[in-house]
Amino acid sequence: MNFDARTGDYPIRAKRDSAESAAPRVDMTxxxxxxxxGRTRVLWFWLRRRRPSTSLTRRILxxxxxxxxxxxxxxxxxxQYQESLINAEIxxxxxxxxxxxxxxxxxxxxxxxxxxxxxxxxxxxxMLRRLSEPTLNRARLFIGNGVMITxxxxxxxxxxxxxxxxxxxxxxxxxxxxxxxxxxxxxDWLPGQGELPVxxxxxxxxxxxxxxxxxxLAGIQGVAVRRHPAGGMVISVSVPIQRYRQVVGALxxxxxxxxxxxxxxxxxxxxxxxxxxxxxxxxxxSVYLAATIARPLRRLAVAAQRVRSGSGxxxxxxxxxxxxxxxxxxxxxxxxxxxxxxxRMDAIERFAADVAHEIKNPLTSLRSAVxxxxxxxxxxxxxxxxxIILDDVARLDRLISDISDASRLDAELSRDPPTxxxxxxALQALVxxxxxxxxxDIVLDIEPGVDLSVCAxxxxxxQVFRNIIANARxxxxxxxxxIVAANRHPRRGGxxxxxxxxxxGPGIPEANLESIFKRFYSDRPTESPxxxxxxxxTHSGLGLSxxxxxxxxxxxxxxxxxxxxxxxxxxxxxQSGAVIGARFVVEFPAAG
Length: 592
Prior knowledge:
Elements: E1 13-15, E2 25-28, H1 37-49, H2 56-72, H3 79-107, E3 109-112, E4 116-119, H4 121-132, E5 138-143, E6 148-151, E7 154-157, E8 160-163, H5 175-188, H6 211-217, E9 221-227, E10 233-243, E11 246-256, H7 258-308, H8 326-373, H9 379-415, E12 419-422, H10 423-438, E13 441-446, E14 453-456, H11 458-475, E15 481-489, E16 496-502, H12 543-553, E17 557-564, E18 579-589
Parallel strand pairs: 2-9, 13-15
Antiparallel strand pairs: 1-2, 3-4, 5-6, 5-11, 7-8, 9-10, 10-11, 12-14, 15-16, 16-18, 17-18
Helix pairs in contact: 2-7, 3-4, 7-8, 8-9, 9-12, 10-11, 11-12
């Protein structure tokens, strides 16, 4: 709705009826469809100044209430409903005005000789009072020169016109009454009234004071909606009074917005009731949602904080195993992570203790040899002691190198992702290198055409098979064979690729099949299978432990077993066959 600077008023929208007896109309009702801009800017400014909450519970509550406030925001923005009520009032006044104007034109217009047609003020006043009394509308009658001759809210006496108005009953002051009045005033507030022109009455009233009356005297119906200074609106309709198509006056019907305010109040009360129920349900649901989400997360955060601060191993993560949602998964994963953390710490402690023990032995021997060599004068004894010192130094160097490799292993496996490797190519290259450098008889047994691709760590995978082959060569006689075989086995959920390394050594004691994979474990005979003596401390005992750790990091398995002779599947008396060697089995899930 735009203000017209030329006329000092709001634009007029002309309407014409199709009926022959109806005169054209002018609608002076302001457009109430564009009243939201100012209120929207204020609401947006307020929301931007609000600081975000740091509590998940408050955020859940705020989001739910914000979603609820979107439909409830229509409490103060019922423009379309209000406009429909105003239009209904205008149409009712127009119908009444046409009836009243027709009655006055037919019964209260006289023909004066030499003057023409004129409205009889007395008769017209009586007719208007009688007609408007049931409708409670105010009727004012203006003649052609713009003078008001009748007002149903005024009585004429000897001193002039007396204004008649019904006053409300007196009310006593009470706090609850005052609060109720303020609440009713809020409910009765109609949006957009501040943009309406103010209704004013001058004394005496003339047609020029009301533009709708001016256009009615020109033969066009006029409509206007104004804001009353005391509150509410004044709706006015002006209808021309005609006799034989000659306009002899204008009838102005007006009424307040009490009916509209009551209708708006009723719908707002309904909205408030719905809002109250929805608000209570939203609060309860938000509290429940916060209790099922925010509170368990808070308990997990507190437990994690206690674990981080090192409060001891008595700190247990809350158990949400009965929950079948993401928080239950998070609780289980945090518990598993905490257990893995403590296991890793235990492993580090054991590793540190084992390292100290393994290094202490050669250091003790080295110290004893150094102290003794200073007191021995025999060259032969000194030579033997120096040999012991060199062996201990070499053993220390070997231990430190293997320990360093083992300590770097975890970081490398967690940093480098596994890649697809063709075991056929890797094993062939490894066997060729081992055969060339050591002269051992290593046989590679792989069925042609079989896909042996696995997902593993390429550099570390070579280290695994080098350790296993070196271990098999150290236990095999010089004339023995080492057989490396690889096969693919179908399995539900994905094929498996198995690599076996067989030797012809004395085998492994059944009680030590699992112990050989422990760190620093070494159980070797003093003589090799071909009769040669083996020097103590040649092996650190970390090779098989590192190999199993690499294989398990790639999702595979590594274990050892003994190979037996023909009696393995059922010998005489049910006795198993003799051990003819050891077998190391490496199993990987097939890639793709």
